[in-house]
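Here is the promised in-class demo. Please do not try to memorize the tokens; focus on the logic of going from shape to residues.
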């Protein structure tokens, strides 16, 4: 059952970010780090560390904390910052978790089964070092989220 919860969290985060940018169809949203040939602008969502800590000693309940990396690849500084600021602003109330075993959008609207609270969030521009093979400069930023699933 836990594996299904992790996968539902992964998919919920992906669709949460994808829906955040429905007004900008020119942005490629990818699950995990983009391919070697980068399309700009791209936003990638990668699940990072999963940490479980004991919550109650008697019944051994645990609190699960997950780290998420949202990488932004943009055409210029303004675009990069706009994307980063949007993610910061729209994640402040957390992310709903849906049961994607029921199916996927747009054909299915899966049931809400939980919520990930935001424990911490940060945004940082990332310097991009160009080499001889790079054709043009792009701008990169990263949002890092630490979340706690309130359903487990």
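The designed amino acids, position by position:
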């Amino acid at each position: 059952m836990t594996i299904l919860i992790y996968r539902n969290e992964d998919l919920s985060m992906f669709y949460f970010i994808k829906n955040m940018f429905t007004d900008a169809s020119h942005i490629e949203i990818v699950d995990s780090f983009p391919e070697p040939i980068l399309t700009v602008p791209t936003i990638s969502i990668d699940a990072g560390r999963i940490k479980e800590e004991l919550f109650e000693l008697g019944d051994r309940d645990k609190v699960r904390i997950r780290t998420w990396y949202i990488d932004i690849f943009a055409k210029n500084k303004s675009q990069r910052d706009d994307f980063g600021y949007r993610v910061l602003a729209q994640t402040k109330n957390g992310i709903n978790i849906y049961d994607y075993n029921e199916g996927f959008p747009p054909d299915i609207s899966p049931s809400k089964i939980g919520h990930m609270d935001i424990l911490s969030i940060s945004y940082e521009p990332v310097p991009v070092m160009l080499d001889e093979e790079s054709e043009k400069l792009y701008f990169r930023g990263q949002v890092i989220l630490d979340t706690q699933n309130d359903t487990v």
